[in-house]
Write a structure and sequence with these properties.
single chain, about 140 residues, mainly beta, two-stranded antiparallel ribbon, 10 strands
Length: about 140
Protein backbone atom coordinates (compact mmCIF):
# COMPACT_ATOMS: atom_id res chain seq x y z
CA UNK A 1 0.00 0.00 0.00
CA UNK A 2 1.14 3.57 -0.55
CA UNK A 3 0.21 7.20 0.00
CA UNK A 4 1.52 10.04 -2.11
CA UNK A 5 1.16 13.79 -2.24
CA UNK A 6 2.32 16.53 -4.56
CA UNK A 7 2.34 20.27 -4.98
CA UNK A 8 1.83 21.19 -8.63
CA UNK A 9 1.87 24.19 -10.91
CA UNK A 10 -1.20 24.19 -13.18
CA UNK A 11 -1.53 26.08 -16.45
CA UNK A 12 -5.18 26.86 -17.20
CA UNK A 13 -6.44 28.06 -20.58
CA UNK A 14 -10.02 29.06 -21.39
CA UNK A 15 -11.49 29.82 -24.81
CA UNK A 16 -14.94 30.91 -25.96
CA UNK A 17 -16.84 31.68 -29.14
CA UNK A 18 -20.20 33.48 -29.18
CA UNK A 19 -21.92 34.11 -32.50
CA UNK A 20 -25.26 35.83 -33.04
CA UNK A 21 -27.03 35.89 -36.39
CA UNK A 22 -30.12 37.73 -37.57
CA UNK A 23 -31.67 38.81 -40.85
CA UNK A 24 -28.66 39.75 -42.97
CA UNK A 25 -26.52 40.49 -39.91
CA UNK A 26 -24.05 38.60 -37.72
CA UNK A 27 -21.58 39.36 -34.97
CA UNK A 28 -19.00 37.18 -33.28
CA UNK A 29 -16.92 37.33 -30.09
CA UNK A 30 -13.93 35.00 -29.90
CA UNK A 31 -11.73 35.09 -26.81
CA UNK A 32 -9.01 33.33 -24.92
CA UNK A 33 -7.48 33.77 -21.48
CA UNK A 34 -4.92 31.92 -19.39
CA UNK A 35 -3.32 31.85 -15.95
CA UNK A 36 -1.20 29.61 -13.72
CA UNK A 37 -1.73 28.58 -10.12
CA UNK A 38 -0.59 26.16 -7.45
CA UNK A 39 -2.57 23.08 -6.49
CA UNK A 40 -2.32 20.04 -4.24
CA UNK A 41 -2.75 16.34 -5.02
CA UNK A 42 -3.03 13.40 -2.65
CA UNK A 43 -3.71 9.70 -3.30
CA UNK A 44 -3.78 6.36 -1.54
CA UNK A 45 -3.61 3.02 -3.26
CA UNK A 46 -2.16 -0.43 -3.46
CA UNK A 47 -0.48 -2.86 -5.83
CA UNK A 48 -0.77 -6.64 -5.92
CA UNK A 49 1.50 -8.94 -7.94
CA UNK A 50 -0.33 -11.20 -10.35
CA UNK A 51 2.80 -12.58 -11.96
CA UNK A 52 6.46 -11.81 -12.61
CA UNK A 53 5.66 -8.77 -14.78
CA UNK A 54 1.98 -8.14 -14.07
CA UNK A 55 0.56 -5.96 -11.28
CA UNK A 56 -3.03 -5.18 -10.32
CA UNK A 57 -3.41 -1.65 -8.91
CA UNK A 58 -6.16 0.48 -7.36
CA UNK A 59 -5.89 4.13 -6.33
CA UNK A 60 -8.17 6.89 -5.01
CA UNK A 61 -6.99 10.48 -5.32
CA UNK A 62 -7.98 14.08 -4.70
CA UNK A 63 -6.84 17.25 -6.49
CA UNK A 64 -7.47 20.77 -5.17
CA UNK A 65 -6.73 23.67 -7.54
CA UNK A 66 -8.54 26.92 -8.26
CA UNK A 67 -7.14 29.62 -10.56
CA UNK A 68 -8.26 33.21 -11.00
CA UNK A 69 -6.87 36.37 -12.66
CA UNK A 70 -7.10 34.89 -16.15
CA UNK A 71 -5.88 37.41 -18.71
CA UNK A 72 -6.09 37.34 -22.47
CA UNK A 73 -7.83 39.01 -25.40
CA UNK A 74 -11.11 39.07 -27.28
CA UNK A 75 -11.68 39.60 -31.01
CA UNK A 76 -15.02 41.11 -32.03
CA UNK A 77 -16.07 40.93 -35.70
CA UNK A 78 -19.35 41.62 -37.45
CA UNK A 79 -20.92 41.69 -40.87
CA UNK A 80 -20.70 45.51 -40.76
CA UNK A 81 -16.92 45.25 -41.02
CA UNK A 82 -16.19 45.87 -37.34
CA UNK A 83 -12.94 44.33 -36.17
CA UNK A 84 -11.99 45.14 -32.56
CA UNK A 85 -9.33 43.43 -30.44
CA UNK A 86 -9.59 43.98 -26.69
CA UNK A 87 -7.02 42.74 -24.14
CA UNK A 88 -8.02 42.34 -20.50
CA UNK A 89 -9.27 40.02 -17.78
CA UNK A 90 -11.80 37.19 -18.09
CA UNK A 91 -15.05 38.12 -16.31
CA UNK A 92 -18.14 36.10 -15.46
CA UNK A 93 -21.49 37.87 -15.24
CA UNK A 94 -25.16 37.44 -15.91
CA UNK A 95 -27.01 39.72 -18.29
CA UNK A 96 -30.76 40.22 -18.43
CA UNK A 97 -32.48 40.39 -21.78
CA UNK A 98 -35.48 42.28 -20.48
CA UNK A 99 -37.93 40.59 -18.17
CA UNK A 100 -36.78 38.22 -15.45
CA UNK A 101 -34.44 35.95 -17.47
CA UNK A 102 -30.70 36.44 -16.98
CA UNK A 103 -28.07 34.63 -19.04
CA UNK A 104 -24.56 33.69 -17.84
CA UNK A 105 -21.69 35.04 -19.95
CA UNK A 106 -17.89 35.05 -19.91
CA UNK A 107 -15.99 37.74 -21.78
CA UNK A 108 -12.51 39.28 -21.72
CA UNK A 109 -12.85 42.96 -20.83
CA UNK A 110 -10.41 45.75 -19.97
CA UNK A 111 -12.70 46.76 -17.05
CA UNK A 112 -15.38 44.97 -15.03
CA UNK A 113 -18.67 44.77 -16.98
CA UNK A 114 -21.32 47.20 -15.77
CA UNK A 115 -24.62 48.62 -16.89
CA UNK A 116 -28.32 48.33 -16.19
CA UNK A 117 -28.58 44.77 -17.60
CA UNK A 118 -25.40 43.38 -15.95
CA UNK A 119 -25.94 41.30 -12.80
CA UNK A 120 -23.30 39.92 -10.40
CA UNK A 121 -20.16 40.72 -12.42
CA UNK A 122 -16.91 39.27 -11.04
CA UNK A 123 -13.53 37.98 -12.21
CA UNK A 124 -13.82 34.44 -13.59
CA UNK A 125 -12.38 31.59 -11.54
CA UNK A 126 -11.57 28.12 -12.91
CA UNK A 127 -11.91 25.30 -10.38
CA UNK A 128 -10.16 22.12 -11.54
CA UNK A 129 -10.59 20.28 -8.22
CA UNK A 130 -11.95 16.78 -8.11
CA UNK A 131 -11.66 13.17 -7.10
CA UNK A 132 -10.58 10.16 -9.13
CA UNK A 133 -10.61 6.40 -8.66
CA UNK A 134 -8.34 4.32 -10.87
CA UNK A 135 -7.92 0.58 -11.15
CA UNK A 136 -6.20 -1.56 -13.69
CA UNK A 137 -3.52 -4.00 -14.67
CA UNK A 138 0.02 -2.85 -15.35
CA UNK A 139 2.31 -5.03 -17.44
CA UNK A 140 6.05 -4.33 -17.54
CA UNK A 141 7.96 -5.25 -20.71
Amino acid sequence: FYARGALGLYAIRARYLFRREGEGFWEQRKGRASATGLGLEAAVGGEWDLGARTVLFAEAGLRVVSVDRLTGREEFTSSLGDDVVQPGTLYFFRESAGGEDAYPLVFVRSAMPSGPNVIEAREARINASGMAVRAGVRYRF
